[in-house]
Amino acid sequence: MGINGIYVLATVVTLCARLLHGLENGLARTPPMGWLAWERFRCNTDCKNDPDNCISDKLFRTMTDLVISEGYADVGYEYINIDDCWLDKERSYSGHLQPDAERFPYGIRDLSDYVHSKGLKFGIYEDYGNYTCAGYPGSLGYLEADAHTFASWNVDYVKLDGCYSHPKDMDIGYPEFGYHLNRTGKAMVYSCSWPVYQIYAGSQPNFTKIIENCNLWRNFDDIQDSWASLESIIDYYGNNQDNIIPNAGPGHWNDPDMLIIGNFGLSYEQSKVQMAMWAILAAPLLMSVDLRSIRPEYKAILQNKKIIAVDQDPLGIQGRRIYKHKGIEIWARPITPISHSYFSYAVAFLNRRTDGTPSDVAVTLQEMGLVAPGGYRIEDLYEDVDYGVLTPQTKIKVKVNPSGVVILRADVQPIPYRQPASTPYNPFRQIFRPTTLSPNSFK
Ligand SMILES: *[C@@H]1O[C@H](CO)[C@@H](O)[C@H](O)[C@H]1NC(C)=O
Ligand SMILES: *[C@@H]1O[C@H](CO)[C@@H](O)[C@H](O)[C@H]1NC(C)=O
Ligand SMILES: *[C@@H]1O[C@H](CO)[C@@H](O)[C@H](O)[C@H]1NC(C)=O
User: Fold this and answer.
1) Average model confidence (pLDDT) for the chain?
2) Range of the domain at 152
3) Whether residue 49 sits in one domain with residue 193
4) Domain match, 164 and 269 both
5) Which of 57, 161, 255, 257 is catalytic?
6) Alpha galactosidase A C-terminal domain spans which residues (predicted)?
7) Percent of all residues in the chain with a pLDDT value above 90, rounded to a whole number
8) How does pLDDT run across 343-386, given as a tens digit for each residue?
C-alpha cells in the first residue's frame, strides 16, 4: 500500500506545535458524552396520541433513569440533553423563556434537579435567531436574559442552533451569548452551530474565534438515520481534514452530530463503523436512541469501553484519513501513551465496499506512520484479539466486513535495550534490529 508512513507523524507534530487558545471554562476537556433527543425523537409534540415518545418531561426522566440503570453512566455518558420543541410558542409576559406547560408540567428547573439528583448533568437547546429551527421563540434580542434563565435552571450544557438568523451576524452573536453565559457564573458547555451555517451561506468561518468561544460546534449536515448520511459525514471530515483537525483539542471539539446506533437505519456492522469513526474523530458521543428498546448488541457497541477510551483520550488530537483507495480507508488517531515523542495510535480500517465478502487489508505498521523502534502492542477493540507487540516492519492483516470496520489500538512500547543474540525467539516480544530500518524512520 502506498502510504507515506512519515507523513502522519510529521502532521501530528505540526499540529501539537500550533498553539490554540480555546474557550477556558474548564469544561469538555474530553468530548462530551450523553444522550440527546433530536435524531430519534425529533419534534414529536403529540403527547395525547403518543405519550411515550413525545418531547416531554416524562421522556427525559425515563432516559435519565435508563442511562443509570442500563450502565451507560458507568462508561461515561453523563449529559441528558433536550433539543428543539421544549418551549412554549410564546415567551412569558416578562419576556422569559418558558417550557410548554402541558408537556413539562413541573418546569425545567424541576427536571434539571431530577437529572442532577441521579448524578447526571442537564443540557438544553436554544437558537441564536428569531426562532428555533422548529419555530419556537429564539434568543435574538434576549441573549442575556436567556443565559440567566439557563443558569437559574442549573443547566450544564447549552446547544445554540442558528436557524432564522443571518450567518454574518454570528461572529458577533455567538460570542455575545457566550459572554453572557460566562457572566452568569454557572459553567455551561457551549455547543455552537455557528460554522455550519456560515459554510452553508458560502462564507469561511473564523475558527480562531469559534475556538475561543465554543466548546464544540457543528461543521456539517444534521445526521439522518441512514448509512448514506453517515458516509457523507465521514467523507466531509476526511475531505476537509486539513482545515478541521487543527481546531480540535481539550475544551474545543468538532461535532459530527449524534450517534444513531440502535435506531432503524444502520446495520450492525455500520453501527460499529459509527462508533469507531466517532472515536477516531474525537467526536462528542451523544446517543440519540430509544434506550427502552435498544437491542443488546447495539447497546454493547455504545458501551464499548475500549473505543470510548480512544474517544476520550486526554491528548484530544483528532484523527485523520491516511489512506483511501477502492473503497478501503485507513484512519489513524494519535493517542496516549507517548514514549520518546512517539505517539500511540488508534487505527480504523474502514471498508466502504459492498461486495458481499470481507476484504483483506495488509499493511506494515511503518507504512501507517507507526515507526517507534520499540514497536507497539496491538489490540483489536471489537474482537478479543491481542496481537502482542509488533515491530514497525510487521505486516498486519485484517479482514474487514462490507460496510464494516476493524479498529485497533497500538500502544507504543518503550525503546528496548539491545538484546543479547541468544534471546530465544518470542513472537510477542519481537526484537528491534536497527539495520532493517531506514534512517528516515527516525525523523
Ligand atoms: C428578527 O426579527 C426582527 C424583528 O422583527 C427583524 O427586524 C429581523 O430582521 C429578524 N432577523 C432575521 C434574521 O430574520
Ligand atoms: C469565564 O471566563 C473566564 C475567563 O476565560 C474563566 O476563567 C471562567 O472560568 C469562566 N467562567 C465560567 C462560569 O464560564
Ligand atoms: C478571526 O478571529 C481572530 C480572533 O478573534 C481575530 O484576531 C482575527 O482577526 C479574525 N480573522 C479574520 C479574518 O477576521
Assistant:
1) 91
2) 33-312
3) yes
4) yes
5) 161
6) 316-404
7) 87
8) 999 999 999 999 999 999 999 999 999 999 999 999 999 999 99
Is 161 part of the annotated catalytic residue set? yes
Q: Nine-digit cell at 420?
A: 543479547
Nearest CA residue ID for atom 5, ligand 3: 209
Of 9-18, 107-116, 293-302, 312-321, give the lowest mean pLDDT range.
Answer: 9-18
345 shares a domain with 302: no
Q: 165 CB less than 6 Å from ligand 1?
A: yes
User: How far does residue 257's CA lie from ligand 2's centre (Å)?
Assistant: 26
Quick: pLDDT tens for 68-91. 999 999 999 999 999 999 999 999
Whole-number Cα distances in Å, 244 to 126, 229, 319, 320: 25, 19, 10, 10
Same domain, 241 and 338: no
- Do the beta carbons of residue 126 and residue 82 sit within 8 Å? no
Residue 45: pLDDT over 70: yes
Using the mean position of ligand 2's atoms as its centre, give its distance from the Cα of residue 438 in Å: 49
Whether 173 is in the pocket of ligand 1, judged by its Cβ within 6 Å, is no
Q: Residues lining ligand 2, CB < 6 A?
A: 24-26, 182, 185, 187
Tell which atom from ligand 1 comes closest to the C-alpha of 129. 13
Work out how many domains the chain is built from and give that number.
Answer: 2
162 touches ligand 1 (CB under 6 Å):
no
Residues 263 and 155 in one domain: yes
